[in-house]
Amino acid sequence: MPTITRVRTRTRAATSAVVGERDRAAQEPARIGGPDATDPRFRARREAVTDERRSVGRRRARAALAVLTAVALGFALVRSPVLDIDDITVLGASHTTEQQVLAATGLRAGGAMIDVDMAQVLQRAEAMPWVRAARGERSWWGGVTVEVAERVAFTQIVDGERLLIADDTGRVLEVATIARPELLTVEGSEAAEPGQQLGRRYLEVIEVGSALPPGVRSRVGSVRTTPGGAITLTLRSGGVVVWGTADRTDAKLRALVTILGQVDLERLCTLDVRVPATPVVTRC
């Protein structure tokens, strides 16, 4: 009986050990392929995530390559002869030649259309002496058009054989050698060059000359101004109009028109309108 009891005791212990081992095996993930104890489902999921990331990376790389290819093709297209300047048209230029406009604006046939900045082109055109305003447009079919509106000559500053032609704003348009009798002739000396503005005293003369009606202006042969701003008008029929400074223009003009229309100007020496209310006529 004691022997049988010991055998039963060993059997229960062995049974407990076997059951405990099974429980631990059920609770621990299966060991597959050596020391890696990862569950096959987890490993499969991890590999799927890795494959998805690689697929996304490849798609992004292909998209970036497509964008770079499109940019390269676009750059090649705009720099190709397909989109260059084939024809340049200049309109409205009379005193300014087409070659001068092209040189000033930088436009040239064969240049890339993408390089044409129309705002800059028009700004450069308007900086030319004779150009008052400019407008333009470009066509991607290869044409560029620039239309200019030129200034109108108003006065000529006589300095010996040198004549400065200027408009009614005092902008110097050109240097000439032949006088133009239809312009207001001002005797004086001025160092301004084409594209620049006349000095202040000449601007005052232009202001007075602009106020003269055509019938009076045609009777004025020339105008003289001093550095102090005193203005005198030499009449073609003889005599001098002492205008004084460029103030009270309207009142002086009314006095001048009245005298020219009502007074005999024979042997006229001076007609002083510096005090418009009491003009003074002096005969030679």
Task: Give the overall shape.
Answer: rod-shaped
What is the CATH superfamily of the largest domain? Answer: Cell division protein FtsQ/DivIB
Reported CATH architecture of the largest domain: 3-Layer(aba) Sandwich
Radius of gyration: 48 Å
Question: For the residues shown, what is the average pLDDT?
Answer: 80
Reading off the top of the CATH hierarchy, the class of the largest domain is best stated as Alpha Beta
Oligomer: single chain
Largest sheet strand order: 6-5-4-7-8-9-10-11-12
Into which percentage range does the β-strand content fall?
Answer: 15-25%
State the end-to-end distance: 176 Å
The third-level CATH topology of the largest domain is Rossmann fold
Question: What percent of the residues sit in helical stretches (DSSP H or I)?
Answer: 25-40%
Poorly predicted runs are: 1-11, 30-35
Question: Which class best fits the helix and strand makeup?
Answer: alpha/beta
Describe the protein in words.
There is one protein chain. The protein has 284 residues and is an alpha/beta fold. It is rod-shaped. It has helices spanning 2-27, 40-78, 98-105, 118-126, 200-211, 214-217, 249-262; strands at residues 87-91, 131-139, 143-150, 153-159, 162-167, 172-176, 184-187, 220-225, 231-235, 240-244, 268-272, 280-283. The strands form two sheets. Strands 6-5-4-7-8-9-10-11-12 form a nine-stranded mixed sheet, with helices on one face. A three-stranded mixed sheet has the order 1-3-2, covered by helices on one side. The protein folds into three domains: 39-74; 83-150, Roll (Ubiquitin-like (UB roll)); 153-283, Rossmann fold.
